[in-house]
Amino acid sequence: MQPLIWSDVLLALAIGYLLGSIPFGLLLTRFAGLGDVRNIGSGNIGATNVLRTGRKGLAAATLLLDALKGTAAVLIGGLLGPFAGIAAGLGAFLGHLLPVWLGFKGGKGVATYAGVLLGLAWPVVFVFAAAWLLVAYLTRYSSLAALTAVVVVPIALWAIDDLRSAALFTVLSILIFMKHRANITRLLNGTESRIGASK
């Protein structure tokens, strides 16, 4: 087993944070002349809120880039060792949730979560996607689909004995739930918006 070098881990954490904190949703909408995406809908910088601009292409690009910054962080960190790869993934996720450039008010992290998963345990991305698609199809709730998927992922990682990744994604899943507190309240109250529903 490769020895744990804390300087490498901390460096990877910092690199991951800087990558994760790039607010692609905000940048893409501004470059497209749509203003500040934080002034519409939920005020979030993620793909779901970008979709509320009516620009599906921008929303798809935001989703892809928010995911790939997590993957890139893991791959770069992984050059310094497996623990550094884990740290970089954590950093990227925290960077997306708490970007220093935006007063630590970022997105909810689902796309970056998937991107980190792609970098650390790519086969489990299919489990994540299957859970999300099934629940989204059955309920039309994007938030419920995401919450279900992030419950399934740590279980799948524990099942394949990837204990380091399982521990990381248990933490990330808890943070996802914390960021979705308002959605959970609306789900319980029956007031959460469904996919495709007009506002």
Report strand %. Answer: under 5%
Query: What's the helix-strand series?
Result: HHHHHHHHHH
What number of structural domains do the residues give?
1
Quick one: biggest sheet? none
What is the general shape?
globular
The number of strands is 0
What is the helix content?
A: 55-70%
Uncertain spans? none
Q: What structural class do the secondary elements suggest?
A: mainly alpha
Average pLDDT: 93
Radius of gyration: 17 Å
Continuous helix count:
10
First-to-last CA distance = 54 Å
Q: Can you tell me about this structure?
A:
With 199 residues, the chain is mostly helical. The protein has one domain (6-189). It has ten helices and no strands. It has helices spanning 6-20, 24-31, 47-51, 56-78, 82-97, 110-120, 123-139, 142-159, 163-179, 181-189. It starts with 5 loop residues before the first helix and ends in a 10-residue tail after the last helix.
Helix and strand arrangement:
Layout: H1 6-20, H2 24-31, H3 47-51, H4 56-78, H5 82-97, H6 110-120, H7 123-139, H8 142-159, H9 163-179, H10 181-189
Q: What attributes characterize this protein structure?
A:
70% helix; mainly alpha; single chain; 199 residues; globular; 10 helices; 0% strand
Structure described in brief:
With 199 residues, this protein is mainly alpha-helical. It is 70% helix and 0% strand.
